[in-house]
Specification:
Number of strands: 2
Distance between the termini: 59 Å
CATH topology: ABC transporter involved in vitamin B12 uptake, BtuC
Largest sheet: 2 strands, antiparallel
Helix content: 55-70%
CATH superfamily: ABC transporter involved in vitamin B12 uptake, BtuC
Strand order of the largest sheet: 1-2
Order of helices and strands: HEEHHHHHHHHHHHHHH
Radius of gyration: 24 Å
Number of domains: 1
Length: 371
């Protein structure tokens, strides 16, 4: 008995036919493949997002080369790469590998962590001002870290104390809004109040200890990358790696959470669970970054704003935000090291000088929509 094409099972042909018949939306690349089960799978990649991330990545690499080149001992950019691999003059190798490279790594990691936490918090609260620094998480982490430094009856390491302080500040902020959610200016005002209280507690602790102890804790109050502890930097690197993966997992639900809760629920998003997950991720990233550099809060505002102004509004710019945050942190610390050399300006002061006018510009500028 002969069999025609119509008699053959069509399940093996349908996925491939479907994967080939669906065109990518405008502005996207579409990658399609067939799973082992015969199902059609596809991945949409936004062209503008890739271009923005690539541009920020190139800018970050150039800033890193500049960072390793400039300082009290200037090096030619052509001598930086050999020095990274231990070749060239010994003084150049020592300057790059021992003095500048560890600080550069800390700048990149902390800037990326602050910015990623910032864009997550802003999207969660649907407010461009809702960064960890503005809603008090930075100050909470700083207060607990300073308490461990000045010996206020605690013996935990600053990273662990910073995490506890960030979690405490977040819990207080959410408790004060009393079920009002994370949207609106009530949440912002509550966070500012919590941050002010923790800031006052930090100053009170510093006022009650010896001047040498207060000087040791001073970098934690303004933000500095000078002589950062290596274990805290390593912990931040691990935490940031896990945080980036977690951020990508919640990226699609997070994009839908920019709409009203009822709309997100209708699209299949468990808003309460996702909100808790995003909040905890922001708290952990902020705490780990504060444990390394102190409260450099404005990076969480500037980095996401740069990424958002360059990217489209269709997706949350996670990659662009962390690259922009790392770029801002590297340039700010470079400026602090070189502008008034041999006097060094802490990176937190530089970002505050930049971030203050930037914050005013955000408040005065109407939010525009992207294509």
């Amino acid at each position: 008995m002969k069999s025609s094409a119509s008699d053959l099972p069509t399940s093996a042909f349908v996925p491939e036919r479907r994967s080939q018949s669906i065109a990518a939306p405008p502005g996207y690349w579409r990658i399609a493949w067939i799973s082992p089960r015969g199902n059609a799978c596809s991945l949409l990649i936004e062209r503008r997002g890739v271009a923005v991330s690539a541009g920020l990545g190139v800018a970050l690499v150039c800033a890193c080369v500049l960072y390793l080149s400039l300082g009290s001992m200037a090096l030619a950019p052509s001598a930086v790469l050999p020095a990274l691999f231990g070749r060239g003059e010994m003084i150049s190798v020592f300057t790059v590998q021992e003095l500048r490279l560890p600080r550069l790594v800390a700048a990149c990691l902390t800037g990326a962590a602050f910015a990623l936490a910032g864009v997550l918090m802003q999207t969660l609260a649907r407010n461009r001002l809702a960064t960890p620094g503005i809603i008090g998480i930075d100050n909470g982490a700083t207060a607990f870290a300073v308490a461990s430094v000045v010996g206020m009856g605690v013996s935990l390491a600053p990273p662990a104390m910073a995490l506890a302080g960030a979690a405490t500040a977040a819990a207080l902020t959410f408790g004060l809004v009393a079920g009002g959610g994370t949207q609106g200016y009530r949440f912002i005002v509550a966070g500012i109040g919590v941050g002010a209280v923790f800031g006052a507690v930090t100053q009170l602790m510093l006022a009650r200890v010896a001047i040498d102890t207060a000087n040791a804790a001073y970098p934690w109050t303004v933000g500095s990358l000078n002589a950062r502890p290596g274990d805290a930097v390593g912990l931040l690197a691990v935490g940031l790696g896990v945080g980036v993966i977690a951020a990508f997992i919640v990226a699609r639900p997070l994009s839908l959470m920019r709409f009203k809760d009822a709309t997100a629920y209708g699209l299949g998003v468990n808003v309460k669970a996702r909100r808790f997950q995003v909040l905890m991720l922001s708290v952990v990233l902020t705490a780990l970054a504060v444990a390394v550099a102190g409260p450099v809060g404005m990076v969480g505002l500037i980095g996401p704003e740069i990424a958002r102004s360059l990217s489209s509004s269709r997706q949350v710019p996670l990659v662009a935000s962390l690259l922009a945050g790392a770029l801002v942190m590297v340039l700010a610390d470079l400026a602090g090291r070189t502008l008034l050399a041999p006097i060094e300006i802490p990176v937190g002061i530089v970002t505050a000088v930049i971030g203050g006018p930037w914050l005013l510009w955000i408040l005065m500028r109407p939010q525009r929509s992207h294509a």
